[in-house]
Automatic annotation (TrEMBL):
The species this protein was found in: Escallonia herrerae
GO CC annotation, single: membrane
Keyword Coiled coil found: no
PANTHER family for this protein: CYTOCHROME P450 26 (PTHR24286), CYTOCHROME P450 708A2 (PTHR24286:SF305)
Binding annotation for heme: 440
Signal peptide limits: none
Main location: membrane
Swiss-Prot/TrEMBL cofactor(s): heme
GO biological process: brassinosteroid biosynthetic process; brassinosteroid homeostasis; signal transduction; sterol metabolic process
UniProt protein name: Death domain-containing protein
Pfam families linked to this entry: p450
Keywords: Heme, Iron, Membrane, Metal-binding, Monooxygenase, Oxidoreductase, Transmembrane, Transmembrane helix
């Protein structure tokens, strides 16, 4: 018995030693692999030298630092501290993607002038899902479509009087309320107005109000892309599906019953008619594409204008001397009219010099997006470094707009600075609407909308903060408690 035990023990002992050495071997291999992987994470393989920076933690990179909110209109500390430490071009990693952030105005200008040759558009995940940015072949078509329906000719021919009427009605309604949260109220205004240009109010009788849906959607669009029930991102994707279904219905109904029979023959062609007319002309045009464009155009025409409007409320209320000069400009326009009640004209809009400087200044301070997003199509050399092919490049427009080398006292709201600013600063360091091939086709529409809004606002109303007013960058500008104002008719 005891010899049997001994022999089994003897045969067991070497097996245990073998297993242990195998285990140690595996641990050693794993350690080498992880160390190598960590080294590669921190020092990605490239043909040249990477711009300085840090790739942060495995998998998440520096995402947490990037989205950490900062309670100021200034650049978020993430960007500010890295610009100080590494200079105007640095590398980082966001949500597992290697990224270059550039606040170098010459480099930014250069790559935007070589868009689609050196770089291509790139979108955050949420945007990519919403706009199918991978396929760029339709971009030119959409650009022309937007210019056709929102460009200078459309503004001169029909949009200016429509905008003025809508804004007058809206401000009258706002002034009858105890207080208004101007950011979300401005989303409703801009969605309702643009919606009418897109599909002539076909959705006005829909069970769910489109502007309410966009209000929810816009809150979730910039959230962390975690698609599980309860998250803002999940809600955003759900509303996105519902909005698209509603738009798909409108499209189907319009195709079945074209405008001449359903709306009468005097109705002007809207953007939806235009898309339907082109259905058989362009190979990429189909029902899905049309819904996608209606959705995307409503989004771009509302979010940025409503942020700018809300910020203008706050900045003008806090700077009475600017408000005074602005009011004087608009009273002068009224004084020069033969008929005080005649509608605002294109020439009057063009004469609003100070108003346009106020709008520039609000856009500069707002700098709501952290930048323009591109992806390198090839290795790009810059100042002895190499940006590897495939890396995301963020053209940090906010860092240009808030740079003290270009704009004295950059956090100060000072529209008068635009009176004698150098043209080179404007072309290379001020690009709220982008630059080059993909420059925003809605830029003039936005300026006109904001100018008319300010015209009606300062000539007829005054406003006072009721609550909120806090600004946060995370890194996109947010108004966490809203901007609640009491708007009242002017007494004098
Ligand atoms: C304050 C208002 C607005 C701001 C600050 C703004 C900003 C921008 C910027 C920075 C870009 C360029 C993006 C890039 O280069 O990657 C852009 C593109 C675009 N914007 Fe706007 N936008 C505004 C309003 C509008 C409006 C009202 C419309 C529609 C009527 C519009 C339609 C578009 C379209 C279609 C593009 C894509 C252009 C292309 O890829 O060729 N935007 N916008």
């Amino acid at each position: 018995m005891s010899s049997a035990i001994l022999s089994s023990f003897q045969s067991y002992a070497p097996a245990k030693t073998d297993l242990l050495s195998v285990a140690w071997g595996l641990v050693a291999l794993l350690t080498i692999y992880i160390t190598h992987w960590l080294y590669r994470w921190r020092n990605p393989k490239t043909k040249g030298v990477l711009p300085p920076g840090s790739m942060g933690l495995p998998f998440i990179g520096e995402t947490i630092q990037l989205i950490m909110p900062s309670a100021s209109i200034d650049l978020p500390p993430f960007i500010k501290s890295r610009l100080k430490r590494y200079g105007p071009i640095f590398r980082t990693n966001v949500a597992g993607r290697p990224v270059i952030i550039s606040a170098d105005s010459e480099f930014n200008y250069y790559i935007l002038r070589h868009d689609e040759r050196l770089v291509e558009s790139w979108s955050l995940d949420t945007f990519a899902k919403l706009f199918d940015q991978n396929d760029q072949s339709w971009r030119k078509y959409v650009r022309n479509l937007a210019l056709n329906h929102f460009g200078v000719e459309a503004l001169k021919e029909r949009l200016i009087p429509r905008m003025e009427d809508t804004i007058r009605e809206t401000l009258a309604a706002w002034s009858s309320q105890e207080s208004m949260e101007v950011k979300s109220a401005a989303i409703t205004l801009t969605i309702d107005f643009a919606g009418r240009q897109l599909f002539s109010g076909d959705l006005e009788k829909a069970p769910l109000k489109l502007s309410d849906m966009y209000n929810v959607l816009l809150q979730g669009l910039m959230s962390f892309p975690l698609n599980i029930p309860g998250t803002a991102h999940h809600k955003c994707l759900k509303i996105h599906r519902e909005v698209r279904l509603m738009m798909g219905d409108v499209l189907k109904k319009r195709r079945m019953s074209p405008p001449s029979s359903s709306h009468g023959t005097d109705r002007q062609e809207d953007l939806l008619d235009h898309l339907i007319r082109d259905l058989n002309k362009e190979s990429f045009l189909n029902e899905d594409f049309i819904v996608q464009q209606l959705f995307g155009l409503l989004y771009v025409s509302s979010d940025s204008i409503s942020i700018t409007l809300a910020l203008a409320f706050k900045l003008l209320a806090e700077h009475p001397s600017v408000l005074e000069e602005l009011t004087a400009e608009h009273e002068e326009i009224l004084k020069n009219r033969e008929n005080l009640d005649s509608p605002l004209t294109w020439n009057e809009y063009k004469s609003m010099t100070f108003t346009l400087q106020v709008i520039n200044e609000v856009l500069r301070l707002a700098s709501f997006a952290p930048g323009l997003f591109r992806r390198a199509l090839q290795d790009i050399p810059i100042n002895g470094y190499t940006i590897p092919k495939g890396w995301v490049i963020v053209i940090a427009t906010a860092a240009l707009h808030l740079n003290s080398n270009q704009f004295d006292d950059p956090l100060e709201f000072n529209p008068r600075r635009w009176k004698d600013i150098e043209s080179s600063v404007v072309s290379k360091s001020f690009m709220p609407f982008g630059l080059g091939l993909k420059q925003c086709p809605g830029a003039e529409y936005s300026r006109v909308f904001l100018a008319i809004f300010l015209h009606v606002l300062v000539t007829k109303y005054r406003w006072a903060l009721v609550k909120g007013g806090k600004i946060v960058r995370a890194p996109i500008i947010r108004f966490p408690h809203g901007f609640h104002y009491k708007i009242s008719e002017r007494i004098n």
